[in-house]
Amino acid sequence: MAAKWSSIVGVSADQPHVRFNPLRGEWVLVSPHRLKRPWSGQVEKGGDEVVPPHDPKNPLCPRAVRANGEVNPDYDSTYVFTNDFPAMPPGAPDLGESGEHHLLRAAKAQGTCRVMCFHPRSDLTLPLMALPEIRRVVDEWANQITELGRSYLWVQVFENRGKVMGCSNPHPHCQIWASSFMPNEPGRSDANQLKYYEEHGAPLLLDYVQLELKKKERIVVETEHWLAVVPFW
Q1: pLDDT tens-digit readout, 24-33
Q2: Does domain 51-91+108-181 have CATH number 3.30.428.10?
Q3: Three-class HEC string of the chain
Q4: Active site residue 101
């Protein structure tokens, strides 16, 4: 692999260098020589907490009472509801753009935040679920993105799992945020992909896929429909 890196970037594999990230439009420092340090990185202790299949006090479980007093249905598959404490409550007024000074500007942040439970059991995670159950989760992701995408500029599905990530509820679930504005990171990526298309006449990511398929140096998983790589950037 060291020789391949050298042939790509024109430097020794042990030599620090920068690589251009076309999605972010910026250069990233790469210091491969630091892998020779004696420190292997911080190791977090694995969770040893026993999670029951159902806890009536867990607000994400079927038939449980949530903080706002609503009772969850006795769901047996996926279940989606509007977050009881959303960062962007639906129906927020449009304040327009305002500011007493050009350095003190504010604008509307309209949207909605939903919670999606993957499974009625709390002691499961996606890797432990059966394939048909995982398929239902993915299908519901697609449904939510399609529905919310009709009304909002951006829809983000994400999962924070584990106490180290600030998520203390073990029940398998994710967050779905839809907003009237484009967040900074995807906005930058979108602008750079448009610029690439205008300059090269082809989508940036599709070109990158073809490049990785040709080199076969950083591929993790390759199927008929998916390609996962350790990105060059």
Answers
A1: 998 988 887 7
A2: yes
A3: CHHHHHHHHCCCCCCCEEEEECCCCEEEEECHHHHHCCCCCCCCCCCCCCCCCCCCCCCCCCCCECCCCCECCCCCCCEEEECCCCCCCCCCCCCCCEEEECCEEECCCCEEEEEEECCCCCCCCHHHCCHHHHHHHHHHHHHHHHHHHCCCCEEEEECCCCHHHCCCCCCCEEEEEEECCCCHHHHHHHHHHHHHHHHHCCCHHHHHHHHHHHHCCCEEEECCCCEEECCCC
A4: no
